[in-house]
Write a structure and sequence with these properties.
Elements lengths: L1 H10 L4 H16 L4 H15 L3 H12 L19 H15 L13 H9 L5 H7 L1 H13 L4 H12 L5 H9 L7 H9 L7 H7 L18 E2 L11 E2 L5
Antiparallel strand pairs: 1-2
Helix pairs in contact: 1-6, 1-9, 2-3, 3-9, 5-12, 6-7, 7-9, 8-9, 8-10
Pfam family, one: Nitrate_red_del
Keywords: Nitrate assimilation
Organism: Microbulbifer harenosus
């Protein structure tokens, strides 16, 4: 699914190619037959960051996702925290990636949401089922992002809509409002005081690997979404999308 790959890219760290390609993302969204609950949040997200300087966008991204754990982009952070169960869960997920024929390359944990969405996009008719499997995590992080008035809540709203997640968001929002912030200097200092959990040697050798972006042959329903640096091509950076819906 091209939309899953697009959301994956928008959730990843904003680089020059993505920033310069935002106008083309807008054109792409207008060209597709999408329901409003998918198209409109994506357009609002893109329109918001079109107004930014790239460095400001990167700074906002770091401040949101790299300070504290409440809105972490690592799925198992919200399920297992730092328990040893997280290590085994990552091993199991990595096995699913390998079974799907995805190549191991980058040193990124497999529960990183943009990577997980790349995997989902290779699964054809099963893609939304995999997305629904983490629906409860998406809802929790969406509520926390909404509480922070972050535009990234728009992307989670799209994922929840695609997965057809049914959640009492009002009740979840009330619960989130009662949480202690974990992105204050005091909270961050406290985290550093806690001893880090380490995995066994076998687990570490597996989990410190991650997925390279799958190539077009690994997608079951369409071809890959490619982002091209302007300096490496004669055209502006773009989302080159071909193939089926």
């Amino acid at each position: 699914m091209r939309i899953l790959r697009l959301v994956s890219r928008l959730l990843d760290y904003p680089d020059k190619a993505l920033y310069r390609g935002l106008p083309e993302v807008t054109a792409f969204l207008h060209s597709q037959e999408l329901v409003d609950r998918v198209r409109e949040p994506l357009l609002r997200f893109v329109d918001h960051f079109k107004q930014y300087d790239l460095l400001d966008w990167q700074s906002e991204y770091d401040g949101l996702f790299e300070r504290g754990r409440a809105v972490s982009l690592h799925l198992f952070e919200h399920i297992h925290g730092e328990s040893r169960d997280r290590g085994q869960a990552m091993v199991d997920l990595m096995a699913e990636y390998r079974a799907a024929g995805l190549d191991l390359a980058e040193r990124e944990l497999p529960d990183f949401l943009p990577t997980y969405l790349e995997f989902c996009a290779t699964q054809g008719e099963q893609a939304l089922g995999w997305l629904a499997d983490v629906g409860h995590v998406l809802a929790l992080v969406a509520a926390r992002l909404q509480e922070k008035n972050s535009p990234y809540a728009e992307l989670y709203a799209v994922l929840m809509s695609l997965a057809e997640v049914s959640v009492d968001m009002e009740a979840l929002t009330q619960k989130v409002r009662g949480e202690e912030p974990d992105d204050t200097p005091e909270a961050i200092d406290k985290v550093w005081e806690v001893e880090m959990v380490t995995f066994s040697a076998n687990q570490a050798s597996t989990c410190d690997q991650a997925l390279s972006r799958p190539d077009a042959r690994q997608y079951r329903d369409d071809s890959a979404l490619n982002w091209v640096e302007a300096d490496a091509a004669s055209t502006s950076p773009a989302a080159n999308v071909t193939g089926g819906q």
